[in-house]
Request: fold
Amino acid sequence: MINDKIRTYNELKDDEKEVLDSFRKMKLMYDYARFKLHRLQVENLINDYEQLKKLREEIQVKYFSIYEELQVEDLIEGELDAHVWGITREHENEVWDSELRLMSDIKTNFDIAIKMIESGEAEQSILDAENNL
Reply:
């Protein structure tokens, strides 16, 4: 066993090639399903971020509206510092946009991998690598 030579794909017997081909196809099918699942999860997360940003904006509009109304009715005193809100919101948006860019890049990578599997390019790449060993 220790002295056995590692054989290239072309050196395998037909039945050995068939087994290896079957395992390769199963692995690609597994990767395909896994990538599609993760892409869906990432898409859902991206949608959640977009909804979060919209919700945050709606909350701020309501907050200022209610605050102003309470001031007009003399139910509260003091000025609201919109500048502080702006800085906070700007920082939140920077963080969320950074996270969104990361998730978008990850989704793009899954899209590429899925297309490679669908087109047969991934399998061909594996075959080429096996033949060049």
Remarks:
- Residues 14-72 form the longest helix (59 residues).
- The mean pLDDT is 91.
- The CA atoms of residues 9 and 16 lie 9 Å apart.
- The chain is about 80% helix and 0% strand.
